[in-house]
Every structure is written in structure tokens, then in C-alpha cells.
Fold this protein.
Amino acid sequence: MTTISTTLSAKQASDCADGSACGAAPAAVLNDSCLCVGHEQSALAQALDAATGDAEVSALVAERCPHLFAFHPVFVSSADAARMEHLIAAIESVIALPAWQDEVLASAPAIARHDPGARGVFFGYDFHLGEDGVALIEINTNAGGALLNAALARVQQPCGAVAGGTPGAQQAERFEHEVVAMFREEWRLGGNDGPLRSVAIVDSDPENQFLYPEFLLFRKLLQRHGIDAVIADPSELRGHEGRLLHGSMPVDLVYNRLTDFMLEAPASAALRAAYLARAAVVTPHPRAHALYADKRNLAILSDPARLQALDVPAITQAVLLAGIPHTELVHESHAERLWSTRRKRFFKPAGGFGGRAAYRGDKLTRRVWGEILGGGYVAQALVPPGERTIALPHGREKLKFDLRSYCYGGKVQWNAARVYQGQTTNMRTPGGGFAAVYQV
């Protein structure tokens, strides 16, 4: 078997500053050694501010989240990118099955069984690149960062390793048009014939959210396309005569960034009522979260017996089992086995998000293990994340990365990476953050 070196030669490393050594290198080599590309921070600040017409966004990023954007892009082979798309298509085909929906929704809260018609915007399929290829680690239904990554793409520099696989201003422009079209399609799927006139971007205390700068980008993008847009806390919404209002403005569609996935909080009462009465289109919504993002679903998607019981075609089963690490529910009856094999597992709360309360098995203490056994966790076979070498003022350093595919209706709209250090992605690592993805 031929072994591929994962470092550049001394001459290649010296040439990497101008990209002349990169042309024949595979993705793993480039992630380890290529520092020839990135972006200028001043250019990125200008791109962020140009998107809103003032300097507020770049100032907020500098103040609140200075490590929001990674220094360098991440390289992915075209073969691995294709495998990610293939796996996403397989998952979508299973979730479309009536048998899947019956099984998953039977144990979900009642609100998840309400079908609003809309699909749900910004599904995020998150992957690790392991030794055996791509591995899906989770699915999210309110994945943040899409417009931030579009802004980043506008200032990316080319690399000699990439011919046509570099995201740039043209791709960012196309993507932003797709985003607006997606919201309009959600409005139509919600049973509406007229034009989409107004959108409320809703999150708890939005001005103090970490990704509030992105809310400003969304508001301006929608306004540029003739759609009124506001940023609001759910408590600012109210129902009146069959409509959802923000102040005196009727709200046609709510772009839902809440982590109150089932709209159970008292502040979400008006939003919940409007959703159930179809007084406004809410996207993403509780049904989408139950069908896609509950991490207990991964225990079904990675279990051949359960897939067989759902009559999933054999060829689809093969794709799922090859691309989704084995996942199981944590139960006290399996406590001894799971503890003894914990170093090979990652533990996550079934309804969690953003890596909160998630633990690598080799980092577990007995106290935390007791909390995990308390219920609501899944154990997933550990697939280490990829690594990306970056240049810091004190020298080179290896950070971790994962990959995120933003999807709508089963179609991949954009690929991005998140570079970090620690157990989970955090956007607080010097040199880390959102990174462009270059296909090799």
C-alpha cells in the first residue's frame, strides 16, 4: 500500500507562501502545511459593513467575537464532498418515509405532530473527516453562520491547489439570492399565494446573542429584496385578529433562531399560538427539529435492524451505516459496558445544541457520568475531527475542524468549516472560527 506523506518538503514549505507548491498536494497535506491563502481582516471588515451599509457589524464582531473567522481555509477533497452529499441524500430519503415519521413523531411532543407545510430553513449537517472517510456527527435545524460565511467567501484568496473549488464573491452573491428564494418558498409552502412582505428574525434577547451580527446581515439582505424585516425577542410578538404582529407590523414569516425548539417557554406563547393556527409561517419549526435534529434519531439511522424494520432499501442502509458513527441511547442497564468503553465514545444530550453538556468519554468524571445516566443522553462512537495547521504570532499550531453543509430541501447550498481547540466548536479559539472550504 502506498503511503502519502502528510507534510510538505522543506522546499514546498518555503514555496507555500505563494502557492507554487500546492498544485499537486492532496487535501490532508494542504490542511497540514499550506499557509499560502487566507483573508485580510480589513477586507473582511469592509465586506461585512458593505452588506449592511454601515460599520456596525464589523465593530460588533471585533468587540464580541474576535475569533469568529479562522485565519486560513480548510481543504476537502472533491470525493469527500461528494460523499457528504450522498449521505445527506440518503438521510433525506429515510426521513421522507411515512414509517420514519410515524416512529419518530410518536414519542415527540404533540406540537411536533403539527404539519405547517414549510420544510425548515438552514438545516446544518455536521461532519468529521475520519480515517475511514466522512462521518456525520449531528444534524441541526437552526444552523447559524450561513451569511457570515458568504461574507468570508467574498474576500478569500486563491490557492494553487484549487481549480474552480474556491468560494468567492460570485458564489456568495448566488447563495444570498438562494437564501431569499428559500424564505419565499417557505412562505408558499405554508399555503400562501401572495408575495412575502415581512419577516421577523426571532431569538431570545437577540441583541446580546453571540451571532447577533449575522441577524443584522439577514435583516439588510431581506430589506434589499423588498421584504420588511425586524429582529425581535419572542416576547415582543403578539396575536391580533388572526395575525402575528410585531408592534403594528403584521409578520408573514418568522425566521426562528430560538433554541426553545418546541416553543414551550412563556415568552414563546404568542409565537406558538401563531404557529399552530398558521397565522404566520415559522421556520425552522418543532416538527423539523423532531424529525431531523433530535440526536436519538441517530440511534435509528446507525442501527441496521431498525433501518430494516423501516423498509429502508439495502443500498441506502449501506450508505447510512458507512457514514454515521454507531449511536445508542444511554441507559442504566448498559452503564457498565458504556463506562468501560467510554474512551471510544462521545456523549451528547438528545436535545442539546452547540456542544453544550457534551463530553468526550476520556474526559468524563464519575460525577458527570452520574448526570449522564440520569437520562436524555446518547453515546456516539468517537470519530476524531480533522486537523488544520494555522500560523499564529508565536508559530504554527494544529487546531481541530469540522465541516458543516447548509441544506434546504435536501440540497446542499453551502459548505463551511469550523476551526477550534477543545472538546467542541466554540468560536473562541485564537486563529479559529468559521473557515472557507476549498475543494481539491
Summary: DSSP finds 16 helices and 18 strands in the chain. The longest strand covers residues 395-408.
